[in-house]
User: Fold this.
Amino acid sequence: MRRKGEMSLRERTAARLEEATTPALTVHKRRKPAEYFYWAVLILCAYSLIRFVSTSENLRLDLVGSYLFSQPILDGVKITLFLTTVGMLGGTVLGVLLAVMRISSSPVLRATSAAAVYASRSIPLLVQLLFWYFLASIIPKISISIPFGPEIWSADTNVLIGQIPAALIALSLFGAGYMAEIIRSGIIAIDPGQVEAAASIGMAKGMIFRRVIMPQAVRIIIPPTINQFVSILKYSGIVMFIGVGDLMYQVQAIYGQNFQQIPLLIVATIWYGVMTGVLTIAQHMMEKKLNGEPLRRRRGSSVRKEEAMG
Assistant:
């Protein structure tokens, strides 16, 4: 016997069919009067910028087009990408190590990690870069030897730590402190009850870290990690001070000859914008994938019309 208010199977089937055949209604948000003012200001600013760029002869847009894909600029872009990628990779590896040390139960490891993070974040990148580049002035030779025994291996510091190795070491150490805090914040955001539950079923600490903590922490870590990647990309331009031929070095070398600073700086801006845009798109796609959302959505958000309420 049916209870009062309960729908029969036939009624439920009919309701589902009616819902499936009901046309979708597109929901349009009502625009506020202030939005029209914002649009007007935006259009006015865009028009002024486009007019200035298209009419100003001092910008020399012809030079921008001719140098945008020139071989020196492309070589600089390659070196910039190499420094950014390797520096970020080194900083991430060191950051993971420092983050694990920071949350360990050993006070010695925690203190060591805290000191390393403080040094990494407090010393400016330029100071670190110059320190490693001029390391040979205080340590002419780097060697490995057995304590109180013979020397096993040695190399001249100038040969071992040249321009690019010094840049990679500085970028890696500079990013390690920030990545350690990013990774640590992602790890401590996980509910401790999940760790306790995993330990109660006999999972080892290493397995808990790999199977329980990191898969969830990655969702929190990715956005600030991409931001740090972009920061390292922009900070890498400072390596021109030690003669590394990155994008900014090539731009400076060219405008040092033709004295066209602004067109060449526009070229650098375009390339940095393109590389940052690619990283932003990658971040968006990774977040979508980790959250289980489709990478593409159907155009036009729509909702089904609901039946009689109440």
